[in-house]
Specification:
Number of domains: 1
CATH class: Alpha Beta
Number of strands: 8
Bound molecules: zinc ion
Largest sheet: 8 strands, parallel
Strand content: 5-15%
CATH superfamily: Metal-dependent hydrolases
Strand order of the largest sheet: 1-2-3-4-5-6-7-8
Distance between the termini: 47 Å
Amino acid sequence: MGNSIIADDPATRTLCPVKAPKIELHVHLEGTIRPATLLAIARRNGVALPADTVEGLAKLYEFTDFAHFIDVWKLTTGCLRTAEDFRQVVVEYAAEAAGFGAVYLEGIFSGQAGVPWPELFTGYTDGAVEAYERYGVTVRLTPDLYRTQDVEWAEECARWAVRYADRGVVGLGLGGLEAAAPAARYARAFAIARDGGLAIVPHAGEAAGPESVREVLAYEPARIRHGIRAVEDPAVLAEIVDRGIVLDVCPTSNVRTRVVDSLPAHPLPALRAAGVRCTVNTDDPAMFGTDLRREYEVAASLGVSAADAYVAGVAGALCDEDTRARLVEIGRQHYPEVPDRDWDANFRAFHG
Ligand SMILES: [Zn+2]
């Protein structure tokens, strides 16, 4: 199969102009690496890949099923070794996203066995600085713990994240299949992060149902990644709305991984109708055959405009006040259809 099942539908292509400013809060940096970059990094590190041309690798990247996705994920992350690799990954994705109008990104990354923490954190945070200097995109970072990961290792990750809080690390996440291990395993890691001024941004309500969203609500998440299956439980949905929690929705990802049957069946419209603020995101664009513009187009085809997604992005961004004020200013300029009270309301909601 190709990558044509959903997003690159000519009917949706005009729905979101490239120049419309965009915010993306849910993108795994390891999942953004296009074949040419992977090839260059693998060569540099002397890592053998199953293909040694861009075309060959691109074919390997074509999504077939979830098991294949995990294989490609392991292949990709296994090539990344040095601070220079991580720097390159974040700078190249910032360049790609800026080409689609991105003004603010929160990149997710995972720790890896065998890679020293300083290489990982220094590479990504240096890359974030460079991304802003070269492309004008503000990049903030949130390392992700993986359910089933060793608890002590997770707590070490949290401590490193705190150490880099003044260099662009703004939160700590949790990923992996929700059913594989309870979030409570990582309660101490979350506490370390929170004590260090970081936000908690877990995945939930993706493969597992609303009970997994309820589970992470106990850790006072700033946002929830995916969270879409909250739609199945009115009480969980109401709590998300009441608490003003933003969901980071990734439509193409959800279809690829078969969390939803098809785009028309995606719960994004139902979530918006219930009053949930939803950002629009790629999750793993290189592996799911998508990009930020396409996701905004897909969202528009589901009735969620770029303006609407942007407003949610401003509300959910884990940034300092100057940055938020700048994002609001960009939004007011480009999305005059958004009433002042919406900017104000989101701003207030975020600050409780
Ligand atoms: Zn994700």
